[in-house]
Amino acid sequence: MKFGFFDDEKKEYVITTPDTPLPWINYLGSQDFFSLISNTCGGYSFYKDAKLLRLTRYRYNNLPADSNGKYYYIKEGDVIWNPGTMPTRTPLDEYQCRHGLGYSRFHGIKNQLSADLLAFVPVDTPCEINVLTLKNQSASAKKLSLFSYVEFCLWNAVDDMTNFQRNLSIGEVEIQGSAIYHKTEYRERRNHYSFFSVNTPIDGFDTSRDEFLGVRRGNDRPLAVEQGKCTGSVASGWYPIASHQIDLVLAPGEEKELIFLLGYCENPQEEKWEAPNVIRKTTALAMQEKYHTSAQVKKAFQDLNHYWEDLLSRFFVNSQDPHVNRMANIWNQYQCMVTFNLSRSASYYESGTGRGMGFRDSCQDLLGFVHLVPERARERILDIAATQFEDGSAYHQYQPLTKKGNLDIGSGFNDDPLWLIAAASAYLKETGDFSILDEMVAFDCDTSKAQPFFQHLLRSFHYTCTHLGPHKLPLIGRADWNDCLNLNCFSSEPGEPFQTTGPSEGPVAESVFIAGMFVKYGREFQTICEKYGHTEEALQAKDAIDAMYQAVLTSGWDGDWFLRAYDATSQKIGSHECEEGQIFIEPQGFCVMAGIGVKEGLAEKALDSVKERLDTKYGIMVQQPAYTRYYLNLGEISSYPPGYKENAGIFCHNNPWISIGETMIGRGSRAFQIYKKTCPSYIENISQIHRTEPYIYSQMIAGKDAPRHGEAKNSWLTGTAAWTFVNLSQAILGIQPSYDGLCVDPCIPADFGDFTVTRRFRGAVYHLFISNPDHVEKGVKYLEIDGKQISGNLIPFEEGKKEYQVTIHMG
Ligand code: BGC
Ligand code: NOJ
Q: Any idea where the Glycosyl hydrolase 94 catalytic domain is (predicted)?
């Protein structure tokens, strides 16, 4: 069952009912100002940091769900309705929501009055623009009143939800013309404020929520709207809002366009203390002027469209499979951008108050983003590296606004350091810009400790070398990629909760997954050293990698698959000897991707075991058999009911690892089958089971042990976006950036057919035609570059050349 459809031409997903199984959302904003917006106009906005600079209020866990946002009430006679249906939930004669790239459109009709709303954040200005067009579709004149509504958040979203004794006295607003300014915090020497304005004279306003709503009412039934008249309230403390009243008379066929702006402003530090209670509005007024007319706003919207056209032109595939084209060319890349911008901080499942930018997460998100805006990837890599400690370990998370490591979470996830090498190597392969290695980068945000970025990579690498356990495998620390495999919390007493912030380093628990990572990214590091002229380091790295490879074969192989780990007492985890949790997906994926066991024939065996034991029709589960009880030596993983999350759920994030692994051994059909199982577009027609947005990936799908097998959770912010794009673009379609140029090495189903890819790479455009007359799954016979035949699969990079026409002959 579907609740909408893809409009590929417009690059939109069109939702045809407000009653989607869950709110289906979109993200507005590409740099600093962001809004989340659901298909019923719910959501909120923030500047840079969803915790510290939250502009509008949202209530997670609220009832009805998703009941705060930027709302427009239309009152015609006694009928009150909203274009996206919420919050009044008045049934509409027509409803549609179109989520597009950086914008959302809503279309509603009630009693022959249509309301079309376009919401977007311009590329270069910190504000959200809402264009509302009302049209009288009837044969007689219509008299109506429009009421806007946003509820301000008092900036720090955690304080906002907790510190009421203070908050309810600090709210301040100012009204000037059609602009309502929210200036809470300005008095206390913060230099920011926000405003909500409209480009037309208003007939009334409210800025106090309780006066607008009336006693014991929710935003589904505001008294002011019912009475058709705002009260003119000026908030003083309590709950500041912004509501404009605009009375309209529309002749038959007449339409009226209104432009609303929610803006974020920062004044220069020196100005702010002149008059603590009166804000300087220069920035705000400039913004209001910038987006005052229809033409200006149309232009801003076109700029946004061009911005996306340009980004998406960097990778474009034309294959015989419309799902592949749609996902690769539109939605997968779009989601990569969103995850790059937000890490795991703010979604409908991440409250924006807990987790800022993840070290591990951001490094992985980069893998799917670096081709889009390499300059921003570079900046991000250096930001992340600056939070690293001198010994190579890292804060697990940092706050986007301050860029400081998060002390509450701390460090101790022993996979973290190696992800920095993953990100750096992806950047170097994409750009060839080795100058990044010379950039001076702080340790623990302390610039006096700055070292060239290369040193950061070296220390990342060394961190694993110096943290090995009794089997010469890497110590796992608090956890590795699998946050819930807490093998060093063995000492907690029965009945005590597991320790998520527990001992930062366990005595002996070891991870085969990190071993795989070490081999994979260690090799990248070795190559970087070689290319950068650090021969000595390259040789040392090679020895350490060879030793790790052997350690995995000796102590990390279980007979038919790779072992997952050793716990704190050196008991095997993820072994056929275990009662439950006998086989895990992560080491199979990472060891095979690292090439471990490929020539020994173990890789194939491991992947066969995955297929036999972990596969379901909805994707590959994290492990099997699911843990049916809580295990002290395993921690959080066994706290989940079987089938959910890390306890045998299907993590969409690591399914691509297996798919990539399959391409390493040339099994294109199987790789593609894995790709399809979790691919949103392929499973759009089971939206009633899957439930989350059918245009983007979710973090997890319930595994076969769960009562709700197939149901997805935690949509949008997941490393799945990046890894799937890497899988599809590099492993399956085979377009691989490498240190020496672009490589092409597809691994596809035999019946996939020929395809073309346009790829922008290091300032040139590559027009690639992949021809597969013999229907092989893998193998490139030769290339034809601008008519010249070349053996191998590397397109040599020629300085200054702007276009390459290449035919790739598979066979
Ligand atoms: C959750 C895990 C989750 C991880 C990262 C843990 O606290 O329980 O399921 O994957 O944090 O969000
Ligand atoms: C979500 C986290 O953001 C990611 O870093 C982690 O690897 C997965 N959970 C698996 O536990």
A: 307-734
